[in-house]
Design a protein that fits this description.
This protein is an all-beta fold and about 190 residues long. Helices cover about 5% and strands about 40% of the residues. The protein has a single domain, classed as Beta Barrel (Sortase, Chain: A). The protein contains 1 helix and 10 strands. This is Class F sortase.
Length: about 190
């Protein structure tokens, strides 16, 4: 389960990706006025996720926004992660965020093994235009839900980052929810054709 009761009090702006592919790159430069290092990645909707280290292959990605109360939506399908579409597309300057469930009442979900990732592991995000943006894991952190660092997770200062978020820690049978969140921090390495 994933209870992302995180309120995002700021709106992140980005060029809108086209339904079938790329749009012109329009990401703002880093706060220092220097464009973030790394390959140019088209603004294109993420459609699939591969994480070889945990044997996640060609998993489709949905789109997530905000609930009416301002909290971040979570995926309806336990087998599918979702991209927070108010942030940048993967590979653009900023933090692109993917959320997925760790489990359900019937067993493991899409991000069940996320907590076992290690620094250096690759995360590959397939984009609608056929590009694959490849990210290297930097760290995996666990936070009590009451101390979830929303600004750190949903923003980035001048780099091209990816965040993967799920539940973790102890399960509270009374609330039927995990007490913590697991966050994987990754940075763009390169792009390859699909």
């Amino acid at each position: 389960m994933l209870a992302a009761l995180v309120t995002v009090p700021w709106l992140l702006t980005r060029p809108a990706p086209q339904a079938g592919g790329a749009a012109p790159v329009g990401a703002a430069p880093a706060a220092t006025g220097v464009v973030a290092p790394g390959p140019d990645v088209p603004v294109s909707r993420p459609v699939s996720l591969d994480i070889p280290a945990i044997e996640l292959a060609r998993s489709p990605l949905g789109e997530l926004g905000l609930n009416p109360d301002g909290t971040v939506e979570v995926p309806v399908d336990f087998a599918t992660a979702g991209w927070f579409d108010l942030g940048p597309t993967p590979g653009q300057v900023g933090a692109s965020v993917l959320l997925g469930h760790v489990d359900s009442t019937t067993g493991p979900a899409v991000f069940f093994r996320l907590r076992s990732l290690e620094a250096g592991d690759l995360v590959e995000v397939g984009l609608a235009d056929g590009t694959v943006a490849r990210f290297a894991v930097g760290s995996v952190e666990t936070y009590p839900k009451a101390e979830f660092p929303a600004r750190r997770v949903y923003t980035s200062v001048g780099s091209r980052d990816l965040r993967l978020v799920t539940c973790g820690g102890e399960f509270d049978p009374v609330s039927r929810s995990y007490e913590s969140n697991v966050v994987v921090y990754a940075t763009l390495v390169d792009t390859v054709p699909a």
